[in-house]
Hints:
UspA; Rossmann-like_a/b/a_fold; Rossmann fold; 5-stranded parallel sheet; Universal stress protein
Amino acid sequence: MVTLLLPCDGSPSALLAVQHAIDAFHRGDVRWVHLLNVQPPFSAHVARHVDHEVCAEFHRERADEALAGARQLLDAAGVPYGVHIEVGDRTRSIAEAARRLRCDRVLIGTARKSALVRAVENSLTNQLLECCPVPVEVIGGAPAGMIERVGIPAGVGAGMALLWASGS
Length: 168
């Protein structure tokens, strides 16, 4: 039986990973789940002008919102879990939590995208596979739309077009 680190942002893909963890618990494969939400830090300018406690409360509220669906599912299924909230870089926070909490594996849900899109987006999944100290199990969500599967995301495409135009 293993201990899972389950990063969750409340997205449908993340909730699919929660359901996968519940199924693994009921099969007897999992004994404990560490549910983790990582909040992005405020910019240095904002942090300098806003009270630390106000920032911390904001991060807690956002994390609670993101974890609400996962907590409901885990509670209803009787899965034992702990809740953790981190502020910082998602990849580093997840990898560090896996090490610190002595997890046997990280379970992450992701949308299905092409390898090109994942490379261009610098995806969290790819980053975790590169740096995580424990195995990362990836649960694929619903297929992405046709443009996302074969193309470059609109924002990246627009940025590339601007770079190309400015170089001419």
